[in-house]
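Example 3.
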Amino acid sequence: MSLDVAKGVSHHPREGGEWWRSGTIYQIYPRSFADANGDGMGDLAGITSRLESLATLGIDAIWLSPFYTSPQKDAGYDVADYCDVDELFGTLQDFDRMLERAHELGLKVLIDLVPNHTSDKHKWFQAAINSAPNSREREFYHFKEGRGENGELPPNNWVSMFGGPAWTRLTEKDGTPGQWYLHLFDSSQPDLNWANPEVQSAFEDILRFWLDRGVDGFRVDQPHAMAKAAGLPDHPDVERAGAGFIEGEPSPPMWFQEEVHPIFRRWREILNSYDGDRAMCGEAYVLPLSFMALWVRPDEFNQTFNFRFLDSEWKPETLFASINESFEAFDSVGAPSTWVLSNHDIIRHASRMGGLAGRPTASDGVGPGDPQPDRELGLRRARGATMFMLGLAGASYLYQGEELGLPEHTTLEPEFRQDPTFARTGGKRVGRDGCRVPLPWQAGLGAANGFNTTGKSWLPQPEIYREYARDQQDGIAGSTLELYKSALRIRRQLKLGEGSFAWLPQFTNERALGYRNGQILVIHNFGRDAMAMPAGEVILRSANGLDQQHIAADETVWIKL
Ligand code: NOJ
């Protein structure tokens, strides 16, 4: 099989030097990054104390997953107060200190906005359930009468992303069964009614609250779910699609409805009314990318996560297609493509690439009863994949711990599982806890290897995390941490993020993929055998120890012309 390079895209640098077009954004999962008070849960003071190590890593920005007041039913993606910090993580003053320190170090800060749903403990939902059907308070959410003779059946056939029905029935104040409310996620995460102007204006105030404090922008959670088709009709194909959608088939009534776009245009106006390059990245799971591109038109989001790239199997033909599709789609609207390999919702790429362990999708997690990934193969490929990604023009996202080559915790016992997916599917999908385990900073410093000094940890680390601790890699030639540092340093020096893209025909086939970005050639060997190294100065390679004449299997090299 050969890849049709003639049909491949090319990409040229564009005008406009905003940081988000080319920056590297590092995702901090606050629960698991660093724990200053030793209670086993990461916190804002912990983040502040470790920011310098991120500046040294060479990233441009951080994105913090939610730290707001929350009952933590979905690890903080169930927000009870959008304008305060949960005491687990500290206080608003701790946030301000963290922001100030990040800015001193030259790091931008994006925070996570969760507009599709609130926690059931949010005052809006509490007011709604304490008010009568059809009241103003209930209009904040989607409350409906049930179907069936006595309203005993859910209002439609929608299912939750975490398994089970997307509706829960209320017991009214007089003890009788009442209306149902919609939740596309856990029953503790009721969906807001975005057709209600009061909801819209409340969120504009929330944006301003954080922009006034000085944040550089937002990562927006599930924006494609916010608007629902009027009347909430049945999903046309729930049997096949489950809670999701099938690409290329008629759009399901809960995802990517047209009505969301004016909302984001308004948000963009608000961001633009502030100084600096404030940015908005949407977690818009909208495919194909030509459709996603509509979300990053010049007056909407600045960027979206590139789920096509993230979901691509690590194979030349799928990557070739996904990179072509990415540049084509995003260039057509003048937006940067983003690139990402790991986040807090999927199996870490160092494990994914060592075999998906028989799990049907990466968000299902891996448990002790599953076939285990090959650690050595996974790390080798992950290092190659990261270097392949970091050579690409556009913005890149990194997930905390990947700079250590950290694998997924694949043997976490059921009693520790906290992801609602686990309970809602009766353990069939073990869920996402395995990629959320606290980071090892210092080998042997307590049971959590320097995550704190007490050894407490909301999820236990596996034994092997000790080997990956940051202090075991810092300054050690050949370590994954040093590889990331070098790649990010070169990326910045040579302005690769702002660069160009063209496939290298002689290295674009069933065994290799290669592209050129300015003066740099990036080549990845997908074959089982080493291949000949082309002429040029090798400035970085993902594998250790092979001779200078060859590119090892699973290796990426950067060559300067
Ligand atoms: C996407 C977030 O990344 C995920 O962690 C969360 O569970 C869902 N949205 C619901 O907020």
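The chain has a mean pLDDT of 95. Residues 99 and 214 are 8 Å apart (CA to CA).
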